[in-house]
Amino acid sequence: MKSVFRSIFLLLVVFTLVLTACASPAATTEPAPVPTNPPTESQPTTEQPEQVAGGCPSIAQGQTIEMWSPLTGPDGDEMSALAKRFSDENPWKVTVKHVAQPEYIQKLNAAAAAKQLPAMTVVRAINIGELVERNVLKPISPDLLAVLGEDIASDFPALAWNAGEYEGQRYTIPLDIHPLVMYYNKDMFQKAGVPEPGKKPWTKDEFESALEKLAASGVQPIAIGTAFQGATLFQSFIRQFGGSLVNEDGTKVTYNSDAGVQALTYVKELKDKYSPEISGAGDPEVAVFKQGKAAIVIHGPWHISDLQKLPFVGFAPIPQVGSQPSVWAGSHQLGLTSDDPAQQAAAVCWIDWLSRNSLEWAKAGQIPARISVFNDPKLVEVAGPVAAFADQAHYAYILPPVAELEGALWGEFGAVVDGVLMGEITDVKAALDQAAAKSQQIVDQNAEKYK
Which of these, 417, 404, 415, 412, lies nearest to 436 by C-alpha position? Predict the structure, then answer.
């Protein structure tokens, strides 16, 4: 079915280009397309009607596209501002309307069923496989991909780029990587004689020495809770200790390994020693830190916009307590959801512009996915907090793009992490074994469902 779809899509593109080439000059009052490379003495002067300035296909000119996203907080405001800037400035007269959707997966699935999908969407990397299988995301053809540049893949960390490929086809372009961040209280550090961390992660010895000095100074060294935070620390440390949640292709569950036991045990030890009373949803550990009652909290970058308002807050990569650098991370990616060639072309022109200008997106607390952008010295000026931990993009871990994989894994080990941290589960290995068996069953069922 997918091959038939691709054939129909290619025929539509060819048919549209033929109509464009054959149209009478008197049939339009639009300016003639500007060639990508102005003629020189050594070049022929024939204009290239399929292109306009900057490499955007002429079929995209004058299009208005709608982009949905799960960006419902301050990051959504940043995205809307970028969409307006592009709409105002681009020479192709393409207009982008950003629409934040709180339940974006449900909205996309419903729109697909009703054949009312927008032109494109921002998608979380963990949802790419499912949305491809549900015929929400459309392939990005090689011709459209060429708009972004010949060697575009080399400008992204491999894990972020690979997340956008499914069954041998490209479906999305990475926009950002959002790993865990170590937030710290600069005043408490100074009082305890703990040097502020730099861009290089603390070692296990440096981390534990800092915690001991902070405790000796009379403050709570670190706030560790359950729910999201406990589970993402587990996911970070299991890889640091040499393990993984799942094998490379996402078919075999492996989080019940010795590394998994070691990782969860380590988080438990930290919580028991320094933060036994914090638990529950709603990020209570962040609230404790924000109130100045704990010196460190490790959490998602979406708290940056709020915490950077506090003068005592510093930002750093999470510690490396094992032999391998790793950190849990997510990634927003940009994908096409329309079959219309003109809408697709306009969307790719916007994606290209947004990717190249994603330095501004860092204001939303995300690391721009493009290596050339997050290595830009201007990142410090535009988004100082992000620059402090941006190097984590090189070793951030994103799950393989397998449909519904995160739910199959986290849906089972999450309860074990909470149970261990709350003292309700004492046999860590047995609990992880039981959860992994359930996860494997779900992974196998999903493989059959999406075969």
Answer: 412
Contact between 279 and 163 under an 8 Å Cβ cutoff? The reply is: no
d(CA 379, CA 373): 8
Express each pLDDT in 7-32 by its tens digit: 433 333 333 433 333 333 333 333 33
What confidence tens digit (pLDDT) does each residue in 152-205 have? 999 999 999 999 999 999 999 999 999 999 999 999 999 999 999 999 999 999
**Which residues, other chains included, contact 399 with Cβ-Cβ below 8 Å and sequence gap of 6+?**
125, 126, 245, 246, 250, 405, 406, 409
- Please identify which residue in the block is written with the tokens 């419902």: 72
**What residue type is assigned to position 103 of the chain?**
E
What's the CA gap between 110 and 114, in Å, rounded?
6
- pTM equals 0.87
